[in-house]
């Protein structure tokens, strides 16, 4: 990536390693750590397969992280995975990715997590259910306004919320592991319980866990605002994913240990009920506060990183109303208009969406593009062997092969198990094609 291309991005470079690490962990550790246990256990049917799919999801994600880290260090510019896809495959696939991120991925993440936040506020404060949508919208709007103050402010929120959210999680893990339980947990052999198909159960469980791991790639969007992206970006991804996997496996084990397994599948209050078993009645309030802090940080992460994608589309004049999307605030230098549109779409989804449906769709769509990135590492190794790579994958080509195998399993399993969801996601993504070509031909006509 030459200096001329990098220089055209005028974002402030004031983020270091810890804000990047906090963004990785803050984006990933959100509502999923507490809420996905119900859908994972419903899909797997047994404690052994539940723990196994968390380990498998972490293993796949770490190998995906190792793979993408090479691209991130070689192409350290604002725009993240959009720029990686464009560099390898060209403008049309990159636009489809950015389109999918702008209209599905980021708004769906914000809306789903804002709904979770509102639900927990109502449970904590005994507020009537009619307040769910107003609270969710208020959170989305508030974090959009806060992020107008600049990436440094958003990064500080991520750092503070990461530390705050890890405290109750670590308490639950440490106390839960050493608290006696009458529930017997058998981790071997790995079975699907009463479910007839082991592979279908594993596929469903893996898809559910992947939302809990989702979000780590978005730190690449901040490369243009990092002091040393070639050094800190790869390190933040790898270190963050290792600790995230450890946390997820341990806290899932604690939930299963604390509650009879049959009470967990489909139970959205499983985390609170497990905390009550561990700490007593105050445990429910502790875990609810932990969820609120965790989800708050995760919504902030989506709000902070998402607008950088449509901003880059505007800078590159690849979207209608490019000047509108490329506009930065005068002092803080953040993409205010791009963030405004993202927030509006998220608010619409708050009225329309279901937590599990929205999260499963965004995971499916993003894994299609993730597969393209994994393949892209092989392409660049062959076509540009002299490209400067401050970080190179160890044990190449094993990590990208593992990441590809995991991604293929997720995509095929979703197509077989949830074809309606899969084709809806694909259809919305492909709607970006006419939008791209309309703008493309209008540009050619104006020359």
UniProtKB/TrEMBL annotation:
<dbReference type="Pfam" id="PF13520">
    <property type="entry name" value="AA_permease_2"/>
</dbReference>
<feature type="transmembrane region" description="Helical">
    <location>
        <begin position="15"/>
        <end position="37"/>
    </location>
</feature>
<keyword id="KW-1133">Transmembrane helix</keyword>
<feature type="transmembrane region" description="Helical">
    <location>
        <begin position="278"/>
        <end position="299"/>
    </location>
</feature>
<feature type="transmembrane region" description="Helical">
    <location>
        <begin position="94"/>
        <end position="119"/>
    </location>
</feature>
<feature type="transmembrane region" description="Helical">
    <location>
        <begin position="49"/>
        <end position="82"/>
    </location>
</feature>
<feature type="transmembrane region" description="Helical">
    <location>
        <begin position="162"/>
        <end position="178"/>
    </location>
</feature>
<protein>
    <submittedName>
        <fullName>Amino acid permease family protein</fullName>
    </submittedName>
</protein>
<feature type="transmembrane region" description="Helical">
    <location>
        <begin position="334"/>
        <end position="355"/>
    </location>
</feature>
<dbReference type="InterPro" id="IPR050598">
    <property type="entry name" value="AminoAcid_Transporter"/>
</dbReference>
<feature type="transmembrane region" description="Helical">
    <location>
        <begin position="421"/>
        <end position="441"/>
    </location>
</feature>
<keyword id="KW-0812">Transmembrane</keyword>
<feature type="transmembrane region" description="Helical">
    <location>
        <begin position="198"/>
        <end position="216"/>
    </location>
</feature>
<dbReference type="GO" id="GO:0016020">
    <property type="term" value="C:membrane"/>
</dbReference>
<keyword id="KW-0472">Membrane</keyword>
<feature type="transmembrane region" description="Helical">
    <location>
        <begin position="393"/>
        <end position="415"/>
    </location>
</feature>
<dbReference type="InterPro" id="IPR002293">
    <property type="entry name" value="AA/rel_permease1"/>
</dbReference>
<feature type="transmembrane region" description="Helical">
    <location>
        <begin position="361"/>
        <end position="381"/>
    </location>
</feature>
<feature type="transmembrane region" description="Helical">
    <location>
        <begin position="131"/>
        <end position="150"/>
    </location>
</feature>
<feature type="transmembrane region" description="Helical">
    <location>
        <begin position="237"/>
        <end position="258"/>
    </location>
</feature>
<dbReference type="GO" id="GO:0015179">
    <property type="term" value="F:L-amino acid transmembrane transporter activity"/>
</dbReference>
